[in-house]
Amino acid sequence: MEKRSASAEKALEQAVRALPPSVLGQRLRRARLRQNRSIRDLAALAGLSKNSIVRLEKGEPGHFGTIVKVCAAMGLHLAGLTNPEESIGQSIAVHRREDDQWFDMTDFGAGPLGDLSLEERHQAAKVPLMMIRARLENGRLLPALLEIYEASEKRSHPGEEMVYVLSGSLLLSVGEQETRLEVGECATFWSAEAHGYAPAHGSELPVRILSVRSDDSPG
User: Fold this and answer.
1) What is the domain range of residue 20?
2) Are 39 and 122 contained in the same domain?
3) How far is it, in rounded angstroms, from Cα 219 to Cα 193?
4) Structure confidence at residue 2 (pLDDT)
5) How far apart are the first and last CA of the chain?
6) Cys bridge to 120: 18, 94, 107, 116, which one at CB 3.0-4.6 A?
7) Which residues of the chain are under the pLDDT cut of 50?
8) Is 40 found in the same domain as 66?
9) Tell me: the pLDDT tens digits for 110-151?
């Protein structure tokens, strides 16, 4: 029995060591965030330096003993690193068509627009926006689909944003700079700069864009 147990532990250690450091680091970070622990708190519980935790989560190779201490501090069995779905959380998030809900970007707090046709959405909102429900647990990416009929008000928020034009021609304003984007083109910008969207001159309507921004809000 002891030999089988030792053999199983050795196999588990080999499986953990076989994980690419970047994957291991991501899974440890997901486990920490799921428990609402800060790096400082986890380091104190594990008896390690903050830098040790940071290096692991950044995907730098770490000593197996360090990984064991981190898992023990979180009450996470090593097997949870090799089969993370149940103990760490989802690896993929999917948005289905039945998840579609449209909002008015200029009045998001008013709630969903309801089950409206394209023409009805145009009448109900200047910039209809659909939040794509494909966000990972504790993930930072916030994807959305926008339909633009006229210029939006400029706004700003922490982090970065990427926009990709699906149809029509977009006039993207970031700070004092304006950039025209055609179908299949994209741009990334620091979204703390005031930015807005508008149909470019001569564009068909609506201009449809995919926006993906990072959630860098505190906490």
Assistant:
1) 2-88
2) no
3) 21
4) 40
5) 47
6) 116
7) 1-4, 218-219
8) yes
9) 888 888 888 888 888 888 999 898 877 667 889 999 999 999
